[in-house]
């Protein structure tokens, strides 16, 4: 076999780019000699840190070296200033233009199917890389009505034709692979994404040019269709398995490809390649993640897949296939996963596991070179509060819960909640009267004689739920629907205790659990609220009269369902509330709909807040599964700083608290203290009214 030497430029950039790009080099060095490939490397500078040191984000030496010496390159990540910084512009955007890397290619592929996506996801987004709004020709000027900012959106026939041709080539190549491996169920297809119904000149030119360029491929069996970009976003997340190759102008392609990362669980998995004629730069889709820089917990998978993608476009498909296979095997086994994937593995451990899966003598080499060139010190291990999974389960056994409720945060106004019983806590304040019940699956806590579960969790709608906060309330005066919010808040900062990748987890929670969530986890007094009407799981509108207290039994607990009772039926209809809970929650994501609704004085409202994500038994947050893993478990106890978890109903127009439910984590009592708790509990069982 003829040997080939490839010279690869290494541009780590900023943040975790300095951790993942060395992993990319390592995977290239570990490829079996039988491929006939050897590599040489040159270290190059670019990024915001380079700009801060030299005043230039993309040195000419970097560009010249890539043009004159290199066959390809690996680019890590860049940190961008959040405010305009004179003289700075994105080095990767500049590189794409300087090297005429006109295509950004981003494959999105699942390894295992999930209940959310039972069919395999295997698609490629091909993004035009050199123009659209990214030409960065902007200006701001004053008018009599204030400042106006404008940006040029440039679409050319040449660029549109090139990118569509690239998409057609990729679709044909993917079909050849499917044919050779006997895969069925999907055929070669290119979907053109645009907004020509509004932008008839720019997007209209992209659409017509792309169709013309793809006509050649239609004669070779590639089908061509198109989607308006907003419809494309919806369908991509509803039925991703139906797509093969998606081609889009720069801005739409950027948004689609980042969003599509949610389909497989993390940006840390999604690779990309910036491709031109005979040159390719592999680039992971994630950012510089300065919050986890130097902690050795960044996910190297996107970089390793980007290495393979670069090799594909350098016509080294066999080498690329070996890397893909090793990475997929790591993910399928799931033993070494980084924290953003719900695992505990360090960056170095993930890379070592993948290296051992590459055939040949190189597979036993170790990744001991993850050093910062400035300090020559090995990156530190995970922070002390980040505990191994086995440790946090052992820690969970040492604690128990106390649940209290009251009209405000003052402990003197809090009463012990009898969890998993039909003994409601009653709360009264100047704005409303309320009655609430708390259920927790597998409960262990105070009072010590509390049932571990209850019949509520046997009801069909709640068999998978882990807890419930069920309550009814009657306003003493009208409350506008926009003012009432429900959620969590804290007394003092938690930012130092937030787990790595918290920002991405927050986006997942907003997308899959509650799109109405808003808050600031990094504030001195952190909070996370949602509009009551779009956050609460079930809402029942009752009658406008003195409510008759409903009493459940241990065998037949009160289970609130969506709907209305008595004259509440007409009130619900008049207010325009959809009949189904999910439709009602979606309806109230619009601010105007919230403002149009009124919680009426004297009318009773019943509701239930529940979910299958927060496990109070193991003190863990269990997010729904993605792609190849059954679910993501975040060990809350690993980050616990002693603060209780508070659920708060409040009026955001006045910042007035209406009631608070507090979940407090306590060390397990000695037997003597348990007996004291029993006595205290018995004495206070009939003292439940709060004013």
TrEMBL record:
Cofactor annotation: Mg(2+)
Domain Isopropylmalate dehydrogenase-like: residue ranges: 7-354
Reactions accelerated catalytically: (2R,3S)-homoisocitrate + NAD(+) = 2-oxoadipate + CO2 + NADH
Biased composition annotated in UniProt, kind: Basic and acidic residues: 671-685
GO molecular function: homoisocitrate dehydrogenase activity; isocitrate dehydrogenase (NAD+) activity; magnesium ion binding; NAD binding
Top-rank taxon: Eukaryota
Keywords: Amino-acid biosynthesis, Lysine biosynthesis, Magnesium, Metal-binding, NAD, Oxidoreductase, Phosphoprotein
Region (Disordered): 671-691
GO aspect biological process, one term: lysine biosynthetic process
GO cellular component: mitochondrion
EC code(s) of this entry: 1.1.1.87
Pathway assignment: Amino-acid biosynthesis; L-lysine biosynthesis via AAA pathway; L-alpha-aminoadipate from 2-oxoglutarate: step 4/5
Recorded family membership: Belongs to the isocitrate and isopropylmalate dehydrogenases family.
PANTHER family noted in UniProt: DECARBOXYLATING DEHYDROGENASES-ISOCITRATE, ISOPROPYLMALATE, TARTRATE, HOMOISOCITRATE DEHYDROGENASE, MITOCHONDRIAL
Protein name: homoisocitrate dehydrogenase
